[in-house]
Amino acid sequence: MPISTSDTSRSLHYGWVIVAVGALVLFSCLGLARYAYTMLLPAMQAGLQLSYDRMGLIGTANFSGYLVAVVLSPWLIRRFRPRAVISAGLLLISLCMAGISQSHGFLPVALLYALTGLGGGFANIPLMALVPCWFRSQTRGRAAGLIIGGNGLAIICAGYLIPLLNRSYAADGWRMAWLLLAAMALLTALIAALWLRNTPAEKGLEPLGPVQHEQHGSMPVPHEHRGDGGLLVRLGLLYLAFGATFMVFGTFIVTSMVREYGLSEVRAGQYWSWVGFFSVFSGVGFGALSDRIGRKQGLILVFLVQSTAYLLAGLKLGSVGLLFAIVLYGSAVFAIPAIMAAAVGDYLGSARAAASFATITLFFAVGQAIGPAVAGLLARLYGSFSPAYLCAAAITLSAALFAFFLPSPKQRGIA
């Protein structure tokens, strides 16, 4: 017989173990495999003698692999369950990053980084789909935010580790960095295989959090709701706007600091670590805030903060403007995924959370595949990333307005 939440109140609920392991998974599958690329880009560009647009295309290759993972993940989750898919995704990431460390030229790096993106999707999507299974509505935002904090820790790590390796190994520093990141991902794959669990029932538990009104006599939520497709599209479009913009700043801001602001790689790495520091709190802070004020209001606030950061970066207002842009970007960068992971459970119910999250992530993956490629082309055309940052600001400002018209989950009878 399942143990109720109150029966386990005196001990640590296993849901928090899921959160801790989940943060480590994101530390590796996205934090190291994706966001470390920003720090590695200047040295890779010099070592491989690649243009801005080709470096942007390598980033897009990663996101294209992630897009394929979005399509395949729902079937894989049903067939093999989340824990197995997450562990396999991390193993693929480890092998591909090790391959990148030994690669020469654009094509092999692009191919391996595309496969890295595939592994990233296989690890991230099932992981975030576990949140509505392990946590009830009033704790979902906080739990998702804590998990996503793993990304920020990875950014801090990359900001200090990669310049150190570049100083120690000179032209081969970026190769040693990819090899070390591969080893970290391999260790995480083992931890995930040992400690993750697919459902609370596997531990004889119920989801963590207070029981909501639908379990106190209200009508059960039907399997399908009229308008669910339209709602998923609306959430998906908001996620697309986030995907198309956040990695423009996230991919190229270090290059901008080095090439356009004249900062050293070490100083740029320190600033990038600040992004990581503030981003540790972005998911949990805005996620917990959305638990209180609502998902719609949380989305609006985050998009407005991001718009300000991109506008400051695009206007190039000097070092002060750059620092404000970095702080604002870091403070909100991982808030949207945290809120979205909670929102799909609120709007559509925990039973449909995995498929719904995969659906809106498809929009996100399309956006992040397009964003860096377009930004690279704009930089090649104008000789600066400022136009790309200004376009990102316009998109996120439009997204804030679009989010204003989302319905409340309570209007749909789901808590």
Main sheet makeup: none
Secondary-structure-derived class: mainly alpha
CATH homologous superfamily grouping: MFS general substrate transporter like domains
The third-level CATH topology is Growth Hormone, Chain: A
Distance between the termini: 25 Å
Number of distinct beta strands: 0
| Contiguous uncertain segments of 5+ residues | 1-9, 214-226
The name of the CATH architecture is Up-down Bundle
Overall shape: globular
Q: Count helical runs.
A: 13
Number of domains: 1
Q: What is the share of helical residues? A: over 70%
Transmembrane segments: 12-37, 57-77, 84-104, 110-131, 143-165, 177-196, 236-259, 271-289, 321-345, 357-379, 385-406
GO molecular function, one term: transmembrane transporter activity
Domain Major facilitator superfamily (MFS) profile: 15-411
Protein name: Sugar phosphate permease
Structure description:
The chain is mainly alpha-helical. It has one domain (11-205, 226-406): Up-down Bundle (Growth Hormone, Chain: A). Helix content is 79%, strand content 0%. It is built from 13 helices and no strands. The chain has helices at residues 14-48, 52-80, 82-101, 106-134, 137-169, 173-195, 228-259, 265-293, 295-315, 318-332, 335-348, 353-382, 386-403. α3 packs antiparallel against α6. The longest helix is centred in the N-terminal third of the chain and has 35 residues, at 14-48. It is globular and about 55 Å long. Residues 1-9 and 214-226 have low confidence and may be disordered.
